[in-house]
Every structure is written in structure tokens, then in C-alpha cells.
Fold this sequence. Notes:
This protein has 715 residues and is an alpha/beta fold. The protein contains 22 helices and 16 strands. Helix 11 links the parallel strand 11 and strand 12 (371-376). The longest helix has 33 residues, at 653-685. Alpha-D-glucopyranuronic acid (GCU) binds next to loops.
Amino acid sequence: MKRILGAIALLVATALAVPAWAVEEDGYQLWMRYRPLDRAAQARLDASAIIYQGAASPTVNAAIGELQRATKGWAGHAAPLRSGLQDGAIVLATPANAPQLAAQIDGLKTLGAEGYALKRLKLQGRRITLIAANTDIGLLYGSFAWLRAAGSGAALDKLDERSAPKLQLRVLNHWDNLDRTVERGYAGESIWDWWALPEVRDRRYIDYARANASLGINGAVLNNVNSKAEILTAPWIAKAAAVADVLRPYGIRVYLSARFSTPLELKETATADPLAPEVAAWWRRKADEIYRAIPDFGGFLVKANSEGQPGPQDYHRSHADGANMLAQALAPHKGIVMWRAFVYAAEKPVDRARQAYDEFKPLDGSFAPNVMVQVKNGAIDFQPREPFHPLFGAMKHTPLMMEFQITKEYLGFATHLAYLGPLFQETLRSDTRQREGGWTVAQVLEEGAGPAGLTGMAGVANIGSSRTWSGSHFDQANWYAFGRLAWNPQASARHIAQEWAAQTFPPAAAKDITDMMMMSREAVVNYMTPLGLHHLMGTGHHHGPAPWVDDLGRPDWNPVYYHKADRKGVGFDRTAGGSGALAQYAPELARRWSDPRSTPPELLLWFHHLPWTYAMPSGRDLWTELVAHYDLGVSQADELRKRWAKLRPMIDAERFEDVSTLLDKQYKEALWWRDASVAYFQSVSGLPLPAGVRAPERSLEEYKRQRFPFAPGRG
Ligand code: GCU
């Protein structure tokens, strides 16, 4: 008996001694971990019960379920569901289910269909937390907002918050193929188990929906923009409908990428010409069929006449002709078309950065009200740094949807730490100068345009079947940041990082982790493409340096096309004397950036071809400055791993090791980027290395010889 008691005492002592955060975690829980809190923190939660009066819808049940899951995790027992008020209750109220309670919030109506208010107050002598909204989905968003506040250490006893999304459509674009591979996916295979659908609905879809709802993401395009005709056949519509059923309670609508030539490829029409009546009729019937299966179907995303995809130009019709024909088929069902502006054609010998603007600007005002033009953040392709796309602010009569890439095709895949909050923020806060007094990209998006005033933001998802969902722990933060910025494009990247870090890692480590995140993207820019260089990555897979490549089928696939380095200088001249792309920006910006001295140094070689001897603001010449940036990038990558190492006592062993291993790999690859790039640019400039600079470890030939035929995520 003594021995048994002793053993029990030891067990209890060990259990008490091991802090909750030290328990192994594999990242599956994302930022919704709800780990046990100490007693003081439990008391601060003050969540004795959940009050909901009336019959709960599936959406309200999702809210209640999440609050219970969290309180169970945090305090050991789930807050019970009650109907009468009590001290410490979390009360969910809409004007429909509890008008008197909802009336506690002044001007609730102004928060619209998706907004919510959180408020601590005393009611009938009871201390409560009121979560009020106009609709059930608002209650779900409000519940997640309370969980976020609780999880990131906000003062819950002073809560008084109201929030409504600034954009209507907040959509993930999955580049997921029907065979479950994912284009530019680095997190395993697609989470959509198409083969097993529609019968088998993986439970993971619910966790996916919870994570998205926690951020306010309200749409998901399930399949790759490089789409296949089959996705619009009956068996696949049934599969998509099954996914839609799971996502619906969480406020998420399903969309599909449509291949423009679908009716022709399915041999159901003789052409795909958008102006042919049989084609328009086919799409109308198809839309009707889809809406019978998915009544709240969101609409189509279309990549047309881009990188070999079919489109209206195959029939000498315009993008507007194509988009409007599809829009007409969807309009009776209130569906929309997201028509991508990512176009460039090999036949045109003009600067690739110009082409989307050249094709779309003349079409401004000619799109149907339910068409949005989806524009990438920059004019080339999701580079570590690009100036904002000149279409923002220039299409005054067409609603534009932002397209960010959450998956890191050009920023080191899921193996490098690069928090994208600062990249997204940089674009959103860019002032287009298309209006007197300023007009940022975020404001352009928020205002919308066109008769229906549609607004939205899309993010190319980084989600897969990996246990971490995103391929690494830190890549989850990019999903998180996208969602938060889609809700509020003016939110701060640092604040979002802090919020994420506090919920994802022990709060004590949140500040240091936030600092690491905030420096990480600039580190990547420095060791890959400093000073406005771009598209120097390896052929096809886009991992690793390959600035020397000059032999690909079309000029604008080659890195040499983008840097134009030779004996005399480096950079792409986009001024009036060069490609003229600068003229696509507002006159004030075009003027400022046409002079290298008033161009921000970080965009210098994007807009200018300059001699290696060009004097930088730092006093160094361009060559010395370039090498210094590569060196800075390497030391920043080194700094990241050193900072992480110091956090060891605070982080659970499994996640600590996972991150450490990746940061070591990142450092190694930063060195590789630096050495290969310096070796290459030295070979073309013919200049000696600046004084005190380390020579590349290997010869240029050795870097050139490296091949990666099995890199993940290829298109
Ligand atoms: C990039 C990417 C492709 C993708 C394309 C797109 O070019 O490498 O994989 O299909 O963008 O956005 O359509």
C-alpha cells in the first residue's frame, strides 16, 4: 500500500511539475490548441456557462461546440450550455433568438451580416460576456474572436470590441489537382480525398472549416486554376457538393476553377466560343445543374489565355466576352466569376510585367456586375518582393480582387521560415497615388467598384495533408495572416504575428517569436533577390538559385531576362527608355520612380538597369551593396536559428526540434543562394570581390550542375 501511495504521489508530483506547454504537440491543432491554463488564468476566463436561448442552427452549434472545446481544454471541463443568465456566462445573442440581449449593443445593425460585438457587462445583476451579431455566422465569428482574445492574453474583463469584415469575399484558392497532387504545394497531398468522396467525408474537413471560420475566411476554390474539364461533370459536382455540405455551417462557400473549353472538351458543343449561343446555353444548363447540388455555390475562378490555358482569345474574343458569358450563366443564382488577370504571352515581345495591364486596362468598365478581376499582388509572379500591381487603382470601374500566394513557391517552400505578413502588408499599404491625397491598395480593395460593389481577397492556399497542415509550424502563420488581412486589409502584420504566436506557442515566447517572424521575409529577400532583383529561381520548381539560366523555350522564362546583368551593369529598365512599364503607374509615381535616385533602393533593379559602379545612398557602389545584401541575408538566417535556440526551455520538444531542423536547413540554403548568386554575378561583372568579402564555397560550374528533378509542387 505504501509503495502504491508513493507511486501515486510521484505521479501527481510529476504531473504538476510538467507545465502544460511541455506536452508534446505535432501542430495539428493549429492556433486552436486550448492547452490547460493555470488557476489564475482559468479564473480570468470567467466562463461559467454558455447561454443560448432557442433552437440552435448548425452554425450556432459550431460556435457552442468550439467554446466548449476551448473551455474544456483550458479549464478541464466544458462550460455547460444553459438558457438562464448566470455570473460568468458567455451569452450568444442575435435579434432573432434573443432580441433583448442583442439590444444591449447599440447600432448592432451597422455590423452587417458577418460582423459581431463582444462586450463585458452587467445584466440583471449578473456579470456576463455578450457575443452579439445579426446572424448565426456573426455569432460564430464572434465566438472565435472571444477565443482569440482569451488565447492571446487580452483583458477579458474589459472586452468591448466590434468588428465587421472590410471585404466581402475572403477566399482560399486551392491549386489542388483531381489526382490529389497540389501545384506549388509543399504540405503533402491535397486534403480533398476526391477518390473517396462523396461518400467519405474526412473529419479533417471539419477542422479545416473551423480554422477558416476562426479567421473569417468564407470561400474555398477547391481545385487548381489549371483546371480539368472533368471537375464540371456530374460525379465531381457530387463530390464538391459533399465538401460544401461540411463547410456550410462554418459560413464557407465552395467555388470551382472552370476550364474555359469544358463543353468542347466534353464533346457537348462544337466550339468554346463565348459568343456562340450553344456555348452560352451549355454554361447556363451547367450552372443550373451545379446549383441544384450546391444551392449556395459561390461561382467560378477562371485562368484563361494564360500559360497555355484555353480562353476566349482562342476565338478572337476578349477577356470580358469570356467572363461575361460565364457571369450570365451564374447571375440568376447570384454566383460570381473571378477572372484572373495573370496573363502573359510568349508571342508578344513586350516586357512580361506590362502584359496584364495592357490587356485588362482597356476592358475597364466592360465586365458584367458579377465579375471580379483577380489580380496578383505584383505584375510578375509572387516574388519575394515586387512593387504593387499597376492595375490596382487603375481599373476604376471594375471590382478587383487581390490574389496573394500563401504557399511559398518562390520563398523557400515550406522549409524556409518566411512570415508573409510584412509582404502582404507592404502591398496593401502601397499608395497607388491614383487619387489626390492618396489611395492605398487596401483602400482600392475595400471600396470595390462597378455596379455591385464587390470586394474580395484570395490567397493561394498552403494547406495539405501534412500533420502541420502547412508543411511546417511557421507556415501556419501565413494562412493565419492571410485570413486576418482578408478580414481587415489595414491590420498590422506585427500585431497579427503576435496574436498567432501567443495562441500557437507559450505566451512567454510570443514576443521573441514575433520578432523572428518580422525579420524573416526580409532575410529571404536579402539572400535570394535583393535590391529589386526577381525571378532568379531554379527552372520549373523555383527552389534554389539559377540566375544563369538562359536557354529556356521562351525569353521570359529565363532568369537572365529579368536581371539583364552583363559586364557593365544589372537590372531591368522599365523606364520610358526601357520597356515603359513604369508608365502604367500613376503619373506621380511613374515620375518619382523613373529616376533611380528617387526609387526606393529595395525596388531599384526592378525599374532600372544601372552600372555596377552606381553610387548607392549608403555610399557604396552597386556591386558592393549587392554582395553586402547577400551577406546580410545569410547572417539574418543565422540569427533566426540562434534566436530560436534560446527559446528551447519554453517550447515543447517536438515542435522545438521540428523548427530547429528547418532553420538549420534554411541557413544552409541561404549560404547556397548567396554563394551561387555572388559567383554568378561576379562572373558576368568581372569585378573582384569587395574587400573583406568571403569567396563562394564552390565554383560557379558546380552550382550550375545541380539538378532537382524531383522537387515537390511542380505544375
Ligand atoms: C505561376 C506558377 C504556376 C501557376 C501560375 C498561375 O506561374 O508557377 O504553377 O499555375 O503561376 O498563377 O496561374
